[in-house]
Design a protein that fits this description.
The protein has 349 residues and is an alpha+beta fold. The protein folds into 2 domains: 245 residues, no CATH class; 89 residues, no CATH class. Helices cover 59% and strands 16% of the residues. A 6-stranded antiparallel beta sheet has the order 1-2-3-4-5-6. A hairpin with a 6-residue loop joins β5 and β6. The longest helix is centred in the N-terminal third of the chain and has 38 residues. The radius of gyration is 30 Å and the shape is elongated.
């Protein structure tokens, strides 16, 4: 049917454009946050790419919900502004028939959001926790690379290795002792080896500059060989948050917090359904009416609805509401809001 195909195609187009814009904003925020963590030493720089990808996956459900709502609302507003709603109504298309393309758009998008919230986002959160745990467990030798300055996890050592044409590795190292004094080591050759289960580096033909108590004064020691013990770390178990636990794990141990997390994951798909249902009465305005009022009202509904979902999630976790009550409270109010908007539009003709 031409009516259904034309409106559905426009909704999809508006949704894609809105989602791409929202995703660009989310990526910018994530990049700034991750680079800040890497600069402060909380996140290894070499896992920025995987961490960004996994964090983006975790943000996709909210991006799709807001993009779907905006796509449906902008389409209905455009139809009302260009008087196409009036033309279709005059051709015998009822108000309820406009839900046909909306529902056709809503069902597959809701299935995608449900899949993301129940399985993909928790998986991405677990993968990032494991990635950060494995990166934190690396010893200093695993991070050293030729031609690159590398800092140890505690910030007390800086290494620089330069490969020579003869195949040897020249080393520069800055060391900070417990008293806050700096030592600089230069060696013409460096070799890694194991001793007593620890990692060591043997330096040959080098010099060591130790900072003394006198300002700008160093004690210079020339050595034929010297050995330094490198820091070794044990791999800690990754700390999984509640939001990263698999769905079958939540269902197997249905405590208050587990039920609250389940309600949170089901909240976004249910919210998407109600947002798209509300798009019709919200966007069906008089062509002479400013679009700003409708957009402000839609934004207020979106913020209030999502905040109420978060509040009910907290109430379930603290035992103030049961799982069913906490799930019905925000979505029941949103359903009542949709009915109120339909009644309001019907009264206004």
């Amino acid at each position: 049917m031409i009516f259904r195909r034309s409106i559905l195609a426009e909704i999809v187009q508006n949704t894609v454009m809105t989602a791409v814009g929202l995703l660009a904003v989310a990526l910018t925020v994530l990049v700034v946050r991750l680079v800040s963590q890497a600069a402060s030493g909380d996140l290894p720089a070499d896992i920025l790419g995987p961490a960004l990808g996994l964090s983006t996956l975790a943000q996709m459900p909210l991006v799709l919900v807001l993009g779907g709502f905006a796509g449906a609302l902008l389409t209905i507003q455009r139809l009302a502004r260009d008087s196409e709603l009036v033309v279709w109504r005059a051709a015998g298309v009822s108000r309820a028939a406009f839900y046909d393309p909306l529902v056709a758009f809503m069902l597959p998008l809701t299935a995608v959001v449900l899949w993301l919230t129940l399985w993909v986002s928790p998986w991405a959160d677990r993968q990032r926790a494991e990635l950060e745990a494995s990166a934190a467990a690396r010893d200093e030798t695993q991070s050293v690379a030729a031609g690159v300055f590398r800092e140890s996890g505690d910030g007390r050592r800086v290494f620089f290795v330069m490969a020579t044409e003869e195949g040897r590795n020249q080393l520069f190292a800055r060391l900070l002792n417990d008293e806050g004094k700096t030592s600089v080591v230069l060696a013409a050759e460096a070799e890694l080896f194991q001793r007593d289960g620890a990692q060591w580096v043997r330096l040959r033909d080098g010099r060591r500059y130790d900072e003394s108590d006198t300002p700008l004064s160093f004690r210079v020691v020339q050595f034929a060989w010297q050995e330094l013990r490198l820091q070794s770390k044990t791999a800690d178990e990754p700390k999984f948050r509640l939001k990263s636990r698999p769905i079958d794990n939540l269902l197997a141990q249905p405590g208050k917090e587990e039920l609250a997390e389940l309600a949170r994951r089901l909240g976004l798909p249910l919210a998407l359904i109600l947002f798209i249902l509300m798009a019709l009465p919200l966007g069906e305005s008089n062509p002479r009416t400013s679009r700003g009022y409708t957009l402000i009202l839609a934004l207020l509904i979106f913020v209030s609805y999502t905040n109420l979902i978060s509040v009910s999630y907290g109430w379930i976790a603290r035992g103030k509401l049961s799982f069913v009550s906490g799930l019905l409270l925000p979505h029941g109010l949103a359903f009542a809001t949709w009915l109120a908007l339909l009644y309001w539009r019907r009264k206004r003709g």
